[in-house]
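Ticket reopened. Same input as before:
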Amino acid sequence: MLNRDQLSSVLWFVIGFLICASSIPYRLGELRAPDMGFMPFWTGVAMCLLSALVFLEGTKAKKCGTKWENPFRGARWAKPLIAFLALIVYALLLEWLGFILTTLLLVGFLLRTIYPQKWSVVISASVLTSLMTYVVFRVWLQTQLPAGILSF
Amino acid sequence: MEHLSSLMGGFAVALQPTTLLFCFIGVLIGTLVGILPGLGPVAAISLLLPTTLAVSPVNAVIMLAGIYYGAMYGGSTTSILLNIPGEAASVVTCLDGYQMARQGRAGIALGIAAFGSFIAGTLSIVGMMLIAPPLAEMALKFGPPEYFSLIICGVTLVTFLTKGSMWKALLMAAFGFFLGTIGIDVFKGESRFTLGLPELSDGLALGPVIMGLFGVAEVLSNLEESMERSIFETRIKNLLPTLKDWSASIFSILRGSIIGFLVGVLPGGGGVLSTFAAYAIEKRVSKHPERFGHGAIEGVAAPESANNAASTSTFIPLLTLGIPPNATMAIFFGALMIYGVTPGPLLINEHPDIFWGLIASMYIGNILLLALNLPLIGLWVRILKVPYPILFPLILVFCLIGSYCLTNSVIEVLSMVTFGLIGYLLRKFDYEAAPLVLAMVLGPRLETSLRRSLLGEQGDLTIFITRPISAGLLIVAISLIVIPLIPKIRKKLLAVPKEE
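Engineering reply: fixed in the latest deploy. New output:
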């Protein structure tokens, strides 16, 4: 089993290789006239070389006894995952539902699911957060926030 | 004399009522940001960047700078009272600051942190005022090869100074350089890697990337942990240090100021490194090093002075060379470009109001911070009592607003959330995000310098080693990569005969 450094370096090698491959259609040009693909291609090559060095470093560490350790073991990884998914849903709903409603739902959801709070806290904190941020950013600071179905 | 009259001009700008107000708002927000764990100056500046577009560049720059050095002041409060650093640069302050609080000397610790920060900040401004103009003059002689080598040297230095594996840091830098190539190619005017999204034509927006990698990733990491924390219950009294405290800490403050100033100028230096360096040196020069970690006042004075000196001097490479030395300055770089101001050697001559106005505002900001930190400590402590489970959704909402407002596009929000996940995973696998951000910012300039150099010299790569400044910078960069390898190679060579 690969250890953490070895595993991550393999992933970076693949990313580097993909960057090299996707740079070629942009034309590399030549040294006297480098084209659009020149810089991304060579950064991809550098990534492949550096990931190989990280792999070697990981291999050396493995010989010294550093084995695979699950970086998520012991961590409450479900909470970050839920929060991340909630943020994705927020982004997808933002323009349709509008800032106030989406923010209210997001804050309420996070308060209720991540570190469960009483409903009174959830409702008051989510309403206050969405309204206060709206007043500060939209009304006072005049920033553009999506109106959505509420039309304001 | 010339500098003095320029500085007076700067004061004329900074003392305008509106400018003064923006300076005050900046340091106030900065202090708040420094106090609240999980919301750093990088995220705060990114968040407020869109709101500054309506004001003049001078006021905007002064406010954003106020947030940065204000956060350095505020960070000490959480370190001393909670043993939780509000800022990464305040980690070292926990060691002795919290112990002082437990011994009933919280007030003195907070007081010396505020006074030390004030003295160091002021000394660093003087240094900046003297060094920046000649450095900018020198940078005017730089051509594309020198800029290419300078960026390579700067990024290598950042990777050299990051904790953990240097190869991993260089890998992050390479990935950052790639991200910097996304968008329209300046030579051909055609799009690259934009996935057909018009939002990516100008490249990946820096704000969402930084807010994701630092703000969202920090929150996601914090969610894994139990968030039960208690504020050390003590009456905060005697904020003014006694003569004995002053005599014990004045040289620590001065040493911290010098170390902070020098480290702040280095790419990758900044607040965090300067505090560790100042603390280590203080412990070494002390006649009683055993007191460190048990409430030594020098252990608070030196790092707090260092991080404030560094937060000022870190502006030097940005304003004179156009090279941001850390992630916060990278945001500043982006902000200045949005305001139509190009950071670099011409900035002092083309925009003296911004350069000298900023310097003068720092003097004023330091006084404002002293006035804010000492009398308002009670208020800051009350804010700290807001539990993190209530606070974290608010931090996320701020980041979401900040990323959306940049271009009023959901793509930026998705970009921020994606980089939040990337940042979280990078932390899990011990990769640092700072080299990635710096390389992403400097990538377009590196590419332009490289292609211009090669075009101008018909592809002759020796241009980078035949020009003395360029060659010198590349030698430094190569040395930084080779130096850490020497002990390992030596060890191997010595091991060979034994095996034989």
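Chain B has a mean pLDDT of 84. Chain B touches chain A through 61 residues (CB under 8 Å). Please confirm and we'll close it.
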